[in-house]
Amino acid sequence: MIPLSDLYLQYKGIKKEIDTAIQSVIADSAFIGGKNNQYTKTFETAFSEYLGVKHTVGVGNGTDAIEIALLALGIENGDEVIVPAISWIATSEAVSNVGAKPVFADVLPNYYTIDPKEIEKKITDKTRAIIPVHLYGLSSEMDEIMGLSKKYKLFVIEDCAQAHGAIYKGKMVGTFGDAGTFSFFPGKNLGAYGDAGAIVTNKSELAEKCRLIANHGQEKKNVHMREGRNSRLDGIQSAILSVKLSHLPKWLARRKEIAKKYTKAFEQIKGMTVPTFPKYAEHTFHLFTIQVKNRKILQKKLHEAGIETGIHYPTALPFLAPYEKRHKKKEFPVAQKITSETLSLPLYPEITEKQISFVVKKIVELLS
Ligand SMILES: *Cc1c(COP(=O)(O)O)cnc(C)c1O
Fold it and tell me: How confident is the model at residue 36, as a pLDDT?
């Protein structure tokens, strides 16, 4: 079976470094915090340098990262936050969890990211923030979004859970808005060996507030400035992430190379759409999703041929149970079409040329 991704294979390639890093945290008993919180600080510094941002605040996971950023910006009950109609539920869930209301905007038909024109239509006097999601590794249209944020005085939190190292007009995503949030869920392009996440920002005060909220409002031992929560990036995950961050550029380059091969091979096939993106963006291909009319049949046949595929995501956010009562069936036509047609293909840095050729051959065969 050719899987969608293979984390064990990745581990085997860096086993020595990872094992040494884990052993070192255990030897120091630096599981949470530890001496000067050294493992987490080391990763936070390296990640800030990589992105070109002033502060990284490690937290428990990517969902908490969004929630904590919202709380730190003072988003609360009665506020509205605009999110794209296609994402993983964490994006809208985080908004609801701080007491605010997620308001959905449809996406762009060619790029699948939030449509700036649709954002503007959804702005009311209750709107406080926009959360663009850099879906599948492609940046949202940040110039337009930052323009709206200025015009209407709205905060911007970039959900970068799928887009570590993705670039928009020469700059890393996560560095445009008030804050960027990352997930290091194991399957993401930069993944830990458990749950982990981070908030990045150039605003020192905001970073400090996030740090307080993530650690019980504690400024120093037994001094609690406010109530917060328990959402810390732990020692072992930090050490693993530091090792993996050093390999990330090479892994992202390989992802782009594989995506190029798929794109080239599929360009001529009728009835199938391959991912497109503007010249000013560097797509990092967390997912390579094609669009086909009869994806169920194709998925079944590929499965029979030993090729695993995925559907990200079968339902647009507004039509999930917690939100569907608020929406009419005909709203969000673009998201509706995309979510009924996308199919994600195997793509991970360790996939072999032979496997790529096999996937290509089978798809060409099945769709011709
Ligand atoms: C994975 C993901 C999250 C949530 O991250 P967790 O670490 O699993 O909490 C948020 N937003 C998007 C777009 C994601 O893909």
Answer: 84
Q: Tell me the DSSP string of 161-197.
A: TT-TT-EETTEETTSSSSEEEEE--TTSSS--SS--E
For residues 368 and 333, the model is more confident at 333
Residue whose CA lies nearest to ligand 1 atom number 5: 62
Mean pLDDT of 264-269: 93
Q: Is the peptide bond before 313 cis (omega within 30 degrees of 0)?
A: yes
Render pLDDT for 113-133 as a digit per residue (tens, 0 to 9). Answer: 999 999 999 999 999 999 999
Q: How far is the CA of 19 from the centre of ligand 1 (A)?
A: 26
In whole angstroms, give the CA distance from residue 143 to residue 108: 15
Amino acid in position 315: T
Give yes or no for residue 185 CB within 6 A of ligand 1: yes
Of the pLDDT bands very low, low, confident and very high (cuts 50, 70, 90), residue 35 is confident
User: Residue 216 pLDDT > 90, yes or no?
Assistant: yes
The 3-state DSSP class for residue 206 equals helix
Cβ–ligand 1 distance for 87 under 6 Å, the answer yes
pLDDT of residue 165 exceeding 90: yes
| 161 within ligand 1 shell (Cβ under 6 A) | yes
Q: Which residues pair with 81 in a beta bridge?
A: 102, 129
Q: Which residue type sits at 272?
A: M
Nearest ligand 1 atom, CA 133: 13
**Ligand 1 atom index nearest CA of 197:** 7
Interatomic CA distance for residues 191 and 251, integer angstroms? 12
CA distance 85 to 122: 12
Tokens standing for residue 307: 């090729």
Q: Is 93 in the pocket of ligand 1 (CB under 6 A)?
A: no
Q: How high is the pLDDT of residue 351?
A: 98
Q: pLDDT digits over 76-97, tens only?
A: 999 999 999 999 999 999 999 9
* Closest to 46 in 3D by CA, of 204, 238, 250, 174: 238
- Residue 169 CB: number of other CB atoms within 10 A? 13
pTM of the predicted model as reported, rounded to 2 decimal places: 0.98
Q: 36 pairs with which residues across the strands?
A: none
Residue 133 CA to ligand 1 center (angstroms) comes to 10
